[in-house]
From TrEMBL:
<dbReference type="GO" id="GO:0005886">
    <property type="term" value="C:plasma membrane"/>
</dbReference>
<keyword id="KW-0997">Cell inner membrane</keyword>
<keyword id="KW-0472">Membrane</keyword>
<dbReference type="Pfam" id="PF02618">
    <property type="entry name" value="YceG"/>
</dbReference>
<protein>
    <recommendedName>
        <fullName>Endolytic murein transglycosylase</fullName>
        <ecNumber>4.2.2.29</ecNumber>
    </recommendedName>
</protein>
<dbReference type="GO" id="GO:0071555">
    <property type="term" value="P:cell wall organization"/>
</dbReference>
<dbReference type="GO" id="GO:0009252">
    <property type="term" value="P:peptidoglycan biosynthetic process"/>
</dbReference>
<comment type="function">
    <text>Functions as a peptidoglycan terminase that cleaves nascent peptidoglycan strands endolytically to terminate their elongation.</text>
</comment>
<feature type="site" description="Important for catalytic activity">
    <location>
        <position position="206"/>
    </location>
</feature>
<keyword id="KW-1003">Cell membrane</keyword>
<dbReference type="GO" id="GO:0008932">
    <property type="term" value="F:lytic endotransglycosylase activity"/>
</dbReference>
<keyword id="KW-0456">Lyase</keyword>
<comment type="similarity">
    <text>Belongs to the transglycosylase MltG family.</text>
</comment>
<keyword id="KW-1133">Transmembrane helix</keyword>
<dbReference type="InterPro" id="IPR003770">
    <property type="entry name" value="MLTG-like"/>
</dbReference>
<keyword id="KW-0961">Cell wall biogenesis/degradation</keyword>
<keyword id="KW-0812">Transmembrane</keyword>
Length: 322
């Protein structure tokens, strides 16, 4: 009887020790990323944990896997372990397949080449295929992705092909633009949604204060309706490409490019940046004004004018300081 009692006590002690080993928090000092490669199994995971000093021994984990075989069905991927998680918690996470979601924030006002460089620089995205062949495959109007991708924060798992994000952003913009086109103000000087997108990209680049978008859009609409050149600096900069060094000179305003709206009449051939939904709303529902000019106050806001004389006065006050 005494021997049986000793065995029971020893068995209970071993059970308590095993329970402690699988339920105690791992020695994590902060959020830690862990990648389980394809072809690796739960025992590979236990080996890695021991190598990294997060567990003392693999046997408690092996016992756990025998008692809970569902935990053996781990999925390859990159996971995030947080302080307080136990061995059981980590195996449960790997068997659930709930990988760590990374994010990339793609903002309006930047160019396609800026977005592409941002995606190519992200350590958890595969973006080597974002080339001209990919753009040609999508076949966007204007043969360019400029303006065609919806700005937003996009989430993805490690190793995702950036093409997936681009296609998602492209489809979202197409849907949004078509919906807003159906709700546009009557009589606007655009023949199709793409022309509205082009103007929206100009409004995006010219706007410093969000509430001014519909007013800035109205100025450009009024100029288009009067067959006046848009004369907007961001189009000059875009047309200059890599030659732009941060300054626009008088000669740049006179140098012809397909985008220089001081030289060409009407809209440039493509958008000049990625476009927010607010900018699209602005060009499809501009304010009712007779204003034809605006000049920066150098604080993000603008002075708007209906006459050239008033505009020149504002230029002297805010730009020439006279």
């Amino acid at each position: 009887m005494a021997g049986l009692l000793v065995m029971l006590i020893a068995g209970y002690g071993s059970y308590r020790y095993w329970t402690f080993q699988v339920e105690q928090p791992l020695a994590l000092t902060g959020a830690t990323l862990f990648t389980l490669e394809k072809g690796q199994y739960a025992h590979h995971f236990l080996h890695k944990l021991q190598q990294q000093g997060l567990i003392d021994s693999q046997w408690p984990g092996k016992v756990l896997l025998r008692l809970s075989p569902g935990l053996s069905d781990v999925k390859a991927g990159t996971y995030e372990f947080r302080p307080g998680m136990s061995l059981r918690d980590t195996l449960s996470l790997l068997s659930s397949g709930r990988e760590k979601l990374f994010e990339i924030r793609l903002v309006e006002g930047l160019r396609w080449q800026d977005w592409r460089a941002q995606m190519q620089a992200h350590p958890y995205l595969r973006a080597d295929s974002l080339n001209d062949d990919f753009v040609a495959y999508l076949a966007p109007p204007g043969e360019s992705l400029e303006g065609w991708l919806m700005p937003d924060t996009y989430h993805f798992t490690a190793g995702t092909n950036a093409e997936i994000i681009v296609v998602q952003a492209y489809e979202r913009m197409q849907t949004f633009l078509q919906e807003k086109w159906q709700q546009r103000k009557v009589g606007l000087p655009y023949e199709n949604p793409y022309e509205a997108l082009i103007l929206a990209s100009i409004v995006e680049k010219e706007t410093g204060l969000a509430e001014e978008r519909p007013r800035i859009a109205a100025v450009f609409v009024n100029r288009l309706e009067r067959n006046m050149r848009l004369q907007t600096d961001p189009t000059v900069i875009y047309g200059m490409g890599e030659a732009f060094d941060g300054n626009i000179r008088r000669g740049d305003l006179k140098t012809p490019t397909p985008y220089n709206t001081y030289v060409i009449k009407g809209l440039p051939p493509t958008p000049i940046s990625m476009v927010s939904g607010a900018a699209i709303d602005a060009v499809l529902n501009p304010l009712d004004t007779d204003e034809l000019y605006f000049v920066s106050r150098n604080d993000g806001s603008h002075v708007f004018s209906s006459s050239l004389a008033d505009h020149n006065a504002a230029v002297r006050q805010y730009q020439l300081k006279k």
